[in-house]
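step 3/5: co-fold with DLL
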Amino acid sequence: MWNRVESANREELSRIQSIRLKEMAERVYNLVPFYRQKFDELGIGPADIRGVDDLKKLPFTTKQDLRDNYPFSLFATPLTSVVRIHSSSGTTGKPTVVGYTDYDMEVWTEVMARGLKMADAGPNDVVHNAYGYGLFTGGLGFHYGAEKVGAAVVPSSGGFTKRQLLLMKDFGATILCCTPSFALHMAEVAQEEGYDLKKDFKLRAGFFGAEPASRGLREALKEAWGIAYHEAYGLSEIIGPGVASSCAYGRLHINEDHFIPEVIDPETLEVLPYGEEGELVFTTITKQALPIVRYRTKDITALHPEPCKCGRTLIVMDSVKGRSDDMLIVNGVNVFPSQVEHVLTKVEGTTPNYVIIVEKKGVLDKLEVWVEVDAETFSGGIGAIEALKTRLQNEMLNELYINAKVKIVEPKTLERSMGKAQRIIDKRPDIK
Ligand code: DLL
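step 4/5: write tokens
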């Protein structure tokens, strides 16, 4: 374990959270006009926040609020104290901008080190970091954390797959950090290039995140590379990666001494009890440059406070099923791409490379799923392909209640992504 706080008892944690929350409420009220106005509208002041139990009195913050305050109006420190700026592009509107002071960088590095330590990362490791470097927080977040634990970092960033494989082999990379879809792509290219994935590489663990991954995709990566799968969860608005990381038991621990999580019902905005699924909300309690109050992530998950076999007491979140804005409503049925991925990857012969296409035909939505199969299945003849197609269609109807048309495509025909995979093509009018 990197820090004793990770196994503090829950009363102790809640005491730390209360002290920090009080300070933070005061800071945002005094330093950020946006929050002062929001607090005033609700008729509350910093004195009403005496501890974590008062969290629910505070206002929510949304991505739109960040956009409306573009670029720096939500910052609680002058730009002279800011040492780093990141930004996420998003698909619509202005980008969201996040800033870090020196102290914020220390916290970020600390939470990343905690995550990497879950795979026992240290001076004996070579960390191949294929998350994008640049405005995206993935690359630099992992970079600082890996240096902190004393590993040798290879800052390869995304793209140039063949060169990356060469470096991974020659430098003896032991830990790979990238999106799960890129890790799968790397495995495919390595096979094509004639590498023996288990013999030619020294990889022992991977930190995969920034997008959802179904159980099937996780198993495929573990199997192809022969590694332990660790998940990284985070978002730029809160800090970047490092909000939560999964331990040796596969449980995603939130660094709640820095970020307090809540799960709410996205309709009523009521806080839901532990174990119930809803929208994840975070309040940062130590961030200086960009403190955020009750940020609505749109990510769907549930929280579990029971201690973990790994010894950590930090609360556990379920892996995110998807973002509520990636949820497709197809003829009234809610579907997440990760659920489609789950059904696909359960069936032998398919790969986790797929794309979902939604169109409007008359009044109805029509859903098509294009999925790549492995070479053996593809060469199995038309009968086998037809049977697989029918099987997948039936599974989707039985498990997800959706009537999808499946199209089987040849191996390696769908576009690969170097970062977050694009799984949905929504051609319906009035969407996004
Ligand atoms: O994706 C930060 C990050 C980088 C996390 C590297 C992990 C590894 P953003 O670009 O701001 O930040 O996107 C944040 O990505 O709200 C989720 O919807 C999604 N996301 C991140 N991690 C996971 C994960 C980075 N493990 C948004 N599982 C979040 C599912 C994830 N979705």
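step 5/5: annotate
The pocket of DLL is lined by residues 88, 131, 137-138, 209-212, 231-236, 240-241, 297, 299, 319-320, 323 (CB under 6 Å).
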